[in-house]
Specification:
Layout: E1 2-3, E2 9-10, H1 17-28, H2 32-51, H3 78-88, H4 93-105, H5 109-113, E3 120-121, E4 126-129, E5 140-143, H6 146-156, H7 178-197, H8 209-220, H9 225-232, H10 239-243, H11 249-267, H12 272-275
Antiparallel strand pairs: 1-2, 3-4, 4-5
């Protein structure tokens, strides 16, 4: 059953292409991007129905996205990095650590949200993200720089060895909504930036900018794009991807350690571009 614009309950086999188009266009009037996500979800629903032999065709196929999407390419300046870092200071420890680790490790917020102490080795400096958590469904090893280890050690005290690093209120589950926690930091950062500059316009910042900024900073420092891609755990395709089974652990380690040193120089307001040089593994 699915709820249509006129609030009529219909069987899946009775839903028409016109019904789907009407639904997503109605949503698009107030939330274009949400309409795109709704259309994608409906397509998945009909694909499942085809696989279950409930219907013969996907009536949502070939319907264009009603909302125009643009990929965000915002990269923070060094001054903005300092603002974001400082704005985290007054937050509660878990949220402060989660936000800073997005910049230090260059990992996705949702993957950090599900970080478990059982997957973290603070002695050797490694975090292994299970395939059940990663976007590409493949296990991912993340080297933890000394900066990352220090941040995690502040949370390790009194934490359950088999619990979540960023646990929800009850402790039995991870933080419920990483986007909501990101919005808290975003609001705090914007307010701090506006107070500093006195500008009327708000600071254009979103929590996902941290991961992108880390990648851009590493690229500007001469770290190979393939190594950065491995750190970001981007999915690969093609013959080369099939035969390249090298884990790139040494390269990732050197790159993230280098980024931690440069980040520290940025936070201390030093001329990081002149005093640092990337050394290949």
């Amino acid at each position: 059953m699915i709820l249509l614009p006129r609030w009529r309950a219909r069987k899946v086999k009775d839903i028409t292409r016109r019904d789907v188009r009407a639904l997503v266009e109605t949503i698009a009037e107030r939330a274009p991007i949400t309409a795109n996500r709704t259309l994608a979800l409906i397509r998945k629903m009909f694909n499942y129905a085809i696989g279950a032999d409930w219907i013969e065709a996907n009536v949502a196929s070939l319907i264009p996205k009603p909302g125009r999407e643009q990929s965000r390419d915002r990269v923070l300046t060094e001054d903005e990095i300092r603002t974001v870092w400082a704005a985290c200071e007054s937050e509660r420890p878990a949220l402060r650590a989660l936000t800073r680790l997005r910049l230090v490790t260059a990992q996705r917020g949702g993957e950090l949200q599900h970080m478990a102490w059982a997957d973290v080795d603070l002695e050797t400096g490694w975090w292994t993200i299970p395939g059940t958590v990663t976007k590409n469904k493949m296990p991912h090893r993340v080297p933890l720089s000394p900066t990352a280890v220090d941040i995690l050690k502040t949370l390790r005290k009194d934490a359950s060895a088999d619990g979540w690093v960023f646990a929800g209120k009850a402790g039995a589950r991870p933080l419920a909504d990483v986007k909501h926690t990101g919005s808290r930091i975003t609001a705090r950062v914007k307010a701090a930036r506006q107070a500093e500059s006195g500008a009327v316009e708000l600071f254009d910042f979103k929590a996902h900018d941290l991961r992108r900024t880390a990648a851009a900073m590493m690229a500007s420092g001469g770290i190979p794009r393939l190594t950065i891609s491995k750190i970001l755990n981007h999915a690969e395709s093609g013959v080369t991807a099939v035969y390249d089974r090298h884990g790139y652990d040494p390269e990732k380690r050197v790159a993230l350690d280098w980024w931690a040193v440069k980040l520290q120089a940025i936070l201390e307001n030093k001329d990081a571009g002149k005093v640092l040089a990337f050394a290949r593994a």
